[in-house]
Amino acid sequence: MQDGIFAWASALQDATRDVLTQVIAYIPQLAGALLLLLLGWLAARFTRMILVRGTGAVTAGINRLVPKNFALRLTPSEQAMGVVGQVGFWAVLLLFVTAAAEAAALPILSAWLDQIVAFMPRALAAGVVLLVGYVLSSVARDAVTAPLSAAGISQARFVGVVVQATVLAASVIIGVAQIGVDVTFLTIVTAIALGSVLVSFAIAFALGARDLVANLIGIQQMRGRFVIGQAIRLDGTEGEILEFSAAAVVLDTPDGTMTIPGQRYSAVSTLLLPPRSAGDAPTTGESS
């Protein structure tokens, strides 16, 4: 009985010694893994700070290069810059976590993290494509909207949105292709949707621009017939021509300054009044 107790005690002592030996042997690996995690956390925080500040500096540099009269001014919010910083933070931290898992001899975790790290370049490439696509779409939108708005086209904002959506759709397709997804179906769907939008826009633009085109044509005809300073009677209104705008004529009338759309010149008769001197009676001139 006593010999059996001594045998059990000896076996327990040997097992405890083996466990302690393995733990002591594992301490350097664990310490190395913890050190890598600490270094990774510090490097990730530093990367996040650099990315946030760098994004602001690059944005300021681009805005200095962009002409002041250009519509687009890049003004990323603090939240957007924070997202860029967080992406860099977790990307760097993931690299160090993978190295720490290998140092700690955790093969299953290490293999899983290796797959994620191998996927990171494609994911980052897709993110860069989407970011560049968003910036370019904003540039294209403002570059189209500004001149159309200046020309008085009411659908200018809609045209800008369509252009932006087109560039964004192209960037999304390219970005998705970067991560290895077959984009054939997505390309077909996008092309059909874009075609439908463009057809609808063409119809709406043709209907909405009808009056504008009529005004432009009418003003061009008036420019060839009359000059600033002449007195005319147009659409029942008498006055001196002060200005020809892009789509209207401005008259100085006894009741004040009046703006008449150019299309009225083609719709009604216009009477050219001769110059008047003090005491002259009004006379009738030529009409068109």
UniProtKB/TrEMBL annotation:
Q: GO cellular-component terms in the record? A: plasma membrane
Query: Could you tell me the membrane topology recorded for this protein?
Result: Multi-pass membrane protein
Name the InterPro entries for this protein. Answer: MSC_TM_helix, MscS_archaea/bacteria_type
Ion transport recorded as keyword: yes
Which cell locations does it reside in?
Cell inner membrane
Q: Does the keyword Endoplasmic reticulum apply?
A: no
Chief subcellular location equals membrane
Q: Which Gene3D superfamilies match?
A: 1.10.287.1260
Q: What keyword terms does UniProt attach to this protein?
A: Cell inner membrane, Cell membrane, Ion channel, Ion transport, Membrane, Transmembrane, Transmembrane helix, Transport
In its UniProt record, a GO molecular function of this protein is: mechanosensitive monoatomic ion channel activity
Task: Give the matching Pfam families.
Answer: MS_channel_1st_1 (PF05552)
Transmembrane stretches in the record are 23-44, 87-113, 119-137, 158-179, 185-207
Question: What is known about what this protein does?
Answer: Mechanosensitive channel that participates in the regulation of osmotic pressure changes within the cell, opening in response to stretch forces in the membrane lipid bilayer, without the need for other proteins. Contributes to normal resistance to hypoosmotic shock. Forms an ion channel of 1.0 nanosiemens conductance with a slight preference for anions.
Family statement drawn from the similarity comment of this UniProt entry: Belongs to the MscS (TC 1.A.23) family.
Q: Describe the protein's quaternary organization and the partners it interacts with.
A: Homoheptamer.
Which PANTHER family does this chain map to? SMALL-CONDUCTANCE MECHANOSENSITIVE CHANNEL
Q: What is this protein called?
A: Small-conductance mechanosensitive channel
